[in-house]
Design a protein that fits this description.
The complex is a heterodimer. Chain A is mainly beta. Chain A is built from no helices and 12 strands. In chain A, 0% of the residues lie in helices and 53% in strands. In chain A, the strands form 3 sheets. In chain A, strands 2, 5, 6, 10, 11 and 12 form a 6-stranded mixed beta sheet that branches. A 4-stranded antiparallel beta sheet of chain A has the order 3-9-8-7, with no helix packed on it. The N and C termini of chain A lie far apart (41 Å). Chain B is 0% helix and 53% strand. Classes of the chains: A mainly beta, B mainly beta. Chains A and B meet through strand 5, strand 6 and strand 10 of A and strand 5 and strand 10 of B.
Chain lengths: 114, 114
């Protein structure tokens, strides 16, 4: 079985400061990990993914994520937050040998204060 | 390329009625998935179609059904609507239905049941 946890319902950060949105996962085999962002009244947008290779993955809008196998984590990061980054962020996982259907976390609301 | 298109964007229905939602995937995409999003339950998987065949199904009652046409367009139907069916229904497509491929989401249909 596969599962993913986003331990924070909400993250608050000041504009210009670095941000981190946390995600931990559990799978039987190798994980395929994804981050999506959702703006109000919109669908989810793909930000980045980890399949294999370099543990630091770079994605859209200046976001990056670090895969840590020993801690089973895939935290989303950005060096300098923008007010426009305020949105709902979802982490998702698929198991290499498992179902095509990803398991999504419950989402973390990121609020960037001016 | 046009994105995933969902129609209508908003719907208001009465308990007991039935509703049909439509999804046009990105051109060339063969996999279409449907999700229900609510504040309390987060993102819940409904079903996935690949080349007109239902390949995966979530844990929803039989009132929820779907289909995919030969042009990959998909519809989902909810019969005998209940108040708890009020939600944002999201459609997502991918070109190949592979576990390494991210999903492309539409902006959803907001269904309100009164």
């Amino acid at each position: 079985a596969q599962s993913v946890a986003q331990p924070e319902d909400q993250v608050n950060v000041a504009e210009g400061n670095p941000l981190t949105v946390k995600c931990t996962y559990s799978v039987s085999g190798n994980p395929y990990l994804f981050w999506y962002v959702q703006y109000p009244n919109r669908g989810l947008q793909f930000l980045l993914k980890y399949i294999t290779g370099d543990n630091l993955v770079k994605g859209s809008y200046g976001f990056e994520a670090e895969f840590n196998k020993s801690q089973t984590s895939f935290h989303l990061k950005k060096p300098s937050a923008l007010v426009s980054d305020s949105a709902l962020y979802f982490c998702a996982v698929r198991d290499e040998g498992g179902s095509y259907i990803p398991t999504f976390g419950r989402g973390t609301s990121l609020i960037v204060h001016p | 390329k046009a994105g995933v298109t969902q129609t209508p964007r908003y719907l208001i229905k009465t308990r007991g009625q039935q509703v049909t939602l439509s999804c046009s995937p990105i051109s060339g995409h063969r996999s279409v998935s449907w999700y229900q999003q609510t504040p309390g339950q987060g993102l819940q998987f409904l079903f996935e179609y690949f080349s007109e065949t239902q390949r995966n199904k979530g844990n929803f009652p039989g009132r929820f059904s779907g289909r995919q046409f030969s042009n990959s367009r998909s519809e989902m139907n909810v019969s005998t609507l209940e108040l708890g069916d009020s939600a944002l229904y999201l459609c997502a497509s991918s070109p190949d239905g592979q576990v390494v491929t991210p999903l492309h989401f539409g902006n959803g249909t907001r269904l309100t049941v009164t």
